[in-house]
Amino acid sequence: MDWKTILERDGPVAWRAAYRLVGNAADADDCLQDATLAAVQLSRREPIANWRALLTRLASARALDRLRQRYRSRLHQSEQLQSHEFVDAQQPVEQAQLDELKSQLRVALAHLSQDQAAAFTLCALEGWTYADAADQLQTPAATIGVLVHRARQRLRELLQSIDPNPTPTRSHS
After folding, report:
1. How far is 107 from 91, CA to CA, in rounded Å?
2. Are 60 and 28 in contact (CB under 8 A)?
3. At residue 166, does pLDDT exceed 70?
4. CA nearest neighbour of 120 among 50, 64, 159, 79
5. Distance between CA 129 and CA 122 in Å, rounded?
6. What is the C-alpha end-to-end distance of the chain, expressed in Å?
7. Does this model's pTM top 0.70?
8. Of all helices (H) and strands (E), which one includes residue 156?
9. Which of 4, 5, 6, 15 is the most buried (most CB within 10 A)?
């Protein structure tokens, strides 16, 4: 097993999967590093048939964990920020809306079950077939279809509950 070759060949795919979830390069790097360490440990216990799939699944799982942690941290911070006025960065409206949508999707993904999030990430974000995702997640392809369907339903519910035009609150001292 040549780790350099494996990481050069399969690392970028796993990194992109993590990046799509966490939204920044530093966190995606950390997720890939954690996934690589977990893959090394797993390879010592059993043979690995598909390194790309394994690294992608592990990196996605680490990214979802990071999203959940980030979401919990933001809840705590939002309580502290309620008394402060928020100043928006000077960005074009379209980019700001896209960034907000990505952020909302990341938060919503953190509310899915691990199985739903993994299936949705692999199939909807990474473009994997249900059969490929089923092979990687060791679940029947029909189950992957159900997981993706339920994830989409739940994401729709979560994203619809977000006010698209929130009214900024300002504290008056």
Report:
1. 22
2. no
3. no
4. 64
5. 8
6. 64
7. no
8. helix 141-160
9. 15
Tens of pLDDT along 132-157? 888 888 889 999 999 999 999 998 88
Lowest mean pLDDT of 22-26, 65-69, 78-82, 154-158, name the range. Answer: 78-82
Q: How confident is the model at residue 91 (pLDDT cuts 50, 70, 90)?
A: low
Alpha helices in 46-85 (DSSP H): 51-81
Q: With the C-alpha atoms ordered 141, 8, 59, 158, is the resulting torsion angle positive or negative?
A: negative
Helix axes 93-109, 3-22, angle to 10 degrees: 110
Exposure string over 10-23, b if 16+ CB within 10 A, otherwise e: bbeebbbbbbbbbb
Q: 122: how many CB neighbours lie within 10 A of its CB?
A: 26
For residue 80 the two structure tokens come to 């502290």
